[in-house]
Design goal:
3 helices, alpha+beta
């Protein structure tokens, strides 16, 4: 396998009803770190990381935006592979039966290109990785996509409500906003 045909699993996306509650669960349960929040055309949500892999916790805004799973789907939505050459890797994937569903397959610098595999499972390929991910941890030529934490003020209430729920479960006093 050449470097251009080697994909590294660096992204898993969950489709959930409440991304902030789910994100807080994974932060509390297994210690993942929050990297950023998004409010895009397709979905809103939270990105977490273990330092190598990005976990996107998303709520899709419409059936169309969900890329075939449906707006109410809850579960693993797709996985993402960090590749060296998106255009070449996409050609290889399509030559062995993948079906392109979105993203510019001819743009080597684009965000990501989504396909489905032979079972209809969605996967991304990207040449840049995802927030909080690392291409080859420990190697001298590692590339890391370690953005500083970015939070969107519009989600403060949802984030605080999720934090309060888990703090209450642990029996901790949650300070009021005025304190």
């Amino acid at each position: 396998m050449t470097a251009q045909t080697k994909g590294r699993i660096r992204h898993v996306a969950l489709s959930v009803k409440d991304p902030w509650e789910t994100a807080e669960f994974y932060k509390q349960a297994v210690g993942l770190q929050e990297v950023m929040e998004i409010d895009g055309a397709l979905a809103e949500g939270v990105f977490l990381t273990d330092g190598v892999v990005n976990l996107a916790i998303l709520h899709f805004k419409s059936d169309e935006a969900s890329q075939g799973t449906g707006v109410d789907f809850v579960g693993i939505h797709h996985i993402g592979f960090w590749v060296d050459d998106v255009v070449e890797q996409g050609k290889i994937a399509r030559n062995v039966g993948a079906t392109w569903i979105m993203g510019d397959p001819d743009n080597p610098d684009g965000y990501e290109v989504k396909h489905t595999d032979l079972n209809g499972i969605i996967f991304d390929i990207a040449a840049h990785g995802w927030a909080g991910s690392q291409k080859e941890p420990g190697s001298a030529d590692n590339v890391a996509n370690l953005n500083p934490q970015r939070r969107l003020a519009k989600f403060d209430e949802r984030r605080n409500r999720a934090y309060a729920k888990y703090a209450a479960m642990r029996g901790k006093r949650v300070p009021q906003a005025a304190e």
